[in-house]
Amino acid sequence: MNRLSFRGLRRTGLAILGAAMASATLGTSASAAAPSDTAPAAAAGAGTAASRGCAVVYFDLGETLVHTDEDSRIGYLPGAAAYLRTLRERHIKVGLITNVPSSWGATDAERAATLKKEIDGSWKGSVPFAWEDFGDRILTPRTEAERKPAPVLWERARTRAHGCRLVYEAETSAETDVAVSLGYLAYQTGLPSRPAYLPVRVIKRLAHGSR
């Protein structure tokens, strides 16, 4: 995808600002709602992982972690780089749940590779985007029908959580509402008079079972 089409994708798929924050905590009902072919695997790892205390924080990408200027240059939103660094220092895993064209590849890895090229090719600033933090936790639509706000990507992330608590942060209430319905702790970013991102101390408490 060229720079102009990336700007179009941002506008239509990533940059719709919501009006309110939605939140919920992960409960046993979230595992119960997993697809039948993956629920046993998710449930099997739940006790061990939860007892260790873990959480995985998934993000939307455009206008949540990065911003696109009018000239198509892409860079971190204020506070995003520092927030990711703090999560890394606290050993909290992060991932992306983001819409890209399904034609970008046959697998998440292939689509993620194309996404990296698009972002890095227009990146501004001396600090590069922290792709290494996300590992293989970059989930993208396999078909156009899977594009958010369809619940498929959040469901896929949930089945891979191995019992860890799940957080989702995005700038749109349409997306945080879906995440909440699937058992995530959801936090809407970009709202005035509140932290830019969910405080790390809240995530640590969630990971260890505090409410």
Automatic annotation (TrEMBL):
Keywords, sorted A to Z: Signal
Keyword Signal: yes
SUPFAM superfamilies linked to this entry: HAD-like
Domain of life the protein comes from: Bacteria
Signal peptide residue numbers: 1-32
UniProt entry tagged with the keyword Magnesium: no
InterPro entries registered for this protein in UniProt: HAD-like_sf, HAD_sf, TAT_signal
UniProt-listed Gene3D superfamilies: HAD superfamily/HAD-like
Protein name: Hydrolase
